[in-house]
Amino acid sequence: MRRGLTLVELAVVLVLVGVLALAFSSLFLMGVRTERETGLLQVHSLAQDLWDTLGRDVRGALAVQGYSATGFIVSGVGGCVQYRLNGGRLERRTWTGSCASPTGTFLDVLNPAGLPYAQFCYDNASAPAAVALMDNPCDMASPDGKRLTLRLQGRDFLLPPLAVSRRTD
Predict the structure, then answer these.
(1) Three-state SS annotation for 54-96
(2) Which Pfam families match (predicted)?
């Protein structure tokens, strides 16, 4: 009766174990890469939604009022829209009637993401025609090198700042 393995049998087993280990590590790395890409796709989707919404509201505005580093109100033909930064969250509400008397409930624009360092700034301190959203300090006069940090699931993603101008027809 023979006991143990021959060198050939041992070599075959080691080759099979190596191939299986390579396959499992490739699957693991593909999963990690897919998770990272999914987060990046979600960030780009949220940024595009923000650009579309903020752009539509500001471009269609008749006036920008009540503006500060933490928010502003735009008045338009269809009513009023208010944006505010509240604890790293960007919130938006809409209402009809007087823009001087805000009503309605704020909704989180970027849920589940946040803007931990963001603030608003404007092209003209007395009558803004353009609104920008970027990391503090917000300065439309020198936007070079500025960023907008979007935080998603504890990770920070650096985006270019958002800047939108009102249409002046």
Answers:
(1) HHHHHHCCCEEEEEECCEEEEEECCEEEEEEEECCEEEEEEEC
(2) N_methyl
